[in-house]
Amino acid sequence: MRSSKISASPSIFRRSGGILLHPTSLPGDLGIGELGRQAFRWIDFLKQSGCGLWQILPLGPTGYGDSPYQSLSSFAGNPNLISLELLFQENLLDQTDFEGKPNFTPGKVDFGLLIPWKNHLLNQAYQNFRQRHLPQLQDEFERFCQQHVDWLEDFALFMALKEAHRGKAWMDWDEPYRQRSIKALQAFIAQNAGRLDAFRFQQFLFFRQWSAIRAKANEAGIRIIGDVPIFVAQDSCDVWCNPQLFKLNPQGYPRVIAGVPPDYFSPTGQRWGNPLYHWKAHQQTGFEWWRKRIKHTLTQVDLIRIDHFRGFCACWEIPAHLPTAEKGRWVRSPGKRLFSFLAKELGGELPFIAEDLGLITQDVIELRQAFQLPGMKVLQFAFDDHNPGNPFLPHNFTPQSVVYTGTHDNDTTLGWYTSLGEKGRETVHRYLPLIGQDPAWQMIQYAWASVAIFAIAPLQDFLRLGSEARLNFPGRIGQYWSWRATEEFYSSSLAEQIARLNFQYNRHPFLAT
Fold first, then answer.
1. DSSP 111-130
2. pLDDT tens digit sequence for 291-312
3. How far apart are CA 454 and CA 449, in angstroms?
């Protein structure tokens, strides 16, 4: 198939700066960042800072390990983000419902404490919705269910079945449900109609609140960069509903799993555990599942960071029984054909950022360039050697790139700098002679001064926080994804400092001209 080059939209890819902060990390006293007052306040802060970009992580409902990259669905939203304050304001919760609120620790999400309490309040909100006369909300809910019927019904059924099986992965459900017996599913739906409706209602609340946040951001000239992981979780509605699209055994377990060979983060590689795609089956449908997934995501965000972009050229296939990722093989992927289908579906423009980190081969570079997608540059990777040709050094950037001080997978810049040995610091100092005075801000300035079309840094770097504020460590489970900002970060002086930075380096919001 011949593929023509796709031009990035000038209205989307224009010089701008932004901040990486997942909504779970917003401040507040209800255990986790929410899509209410604090999210609106965050948009105001970004506007005051002169930022044109807000980057987030995947918004899906999280499963085991609480990672947004191991979601129960590629289409649903995370109910933990629903604002309880807004539910109270809309008469869906009463003040008495908040009695017994756990004593949450500021600056951290305690998922074990949060999830049972929040689930209880969301179920109470649904009961109140059914018992109280709220005709406008009822009309909105019915319209939402009609508009999203193609994924919502399966997801509500999946969650109700998971609940009935006490949280077990779908591969361990009773066989009729695991194999999606029509007779068994119809009987279950008839007996559990209320629980399915409650899960639909949670999704309605999430998308209603998120739509308001996105609208406010766009009105302020801020574009939201979302995130689409290339792979999906094994225990997900996606795999349960579409087993033919994945390399599974007859019991539904993966025969081979995804990961990467030994790399910067791990000497034994990363064994992610996600099932791998049966690409031939995807091609036979014209990549229908992918087209729906991307179009749905673009109803929530303005641009998409494509996680593990190199997997669209080839995936590291690990036999599922092996404990590490060291032994595997590269298996080709039909990335060029897929992106050609997506370009046609989206009208010729792909608002994607390619996460082209790790072991990058020439075919990965050619795929990214064929569709003119900006790649990623991470400054923390620029000083691993003494090579002036290191692609992560700013003098080697091209405008068709997005520069980060670090990503959600890196340590904070201050934590990274502090952990460097003497030789490592000498390498950094030769390039950034003043970095010792203020490591995080010096890295931010170099990112913003570069020719990269977008410059983005995690909020932790703007706050000059150390390793205690690290969000994730690839390949490790436990204690991650829990960092949160506190109220103190909303300072006008910080906003003014960031605004001067954006002005000085000609990075602007996306206001209409």
1. HHHHHHHHHHHHHHHHHHHH
2. 999 999 999 999 999 999 999 9
3. 11
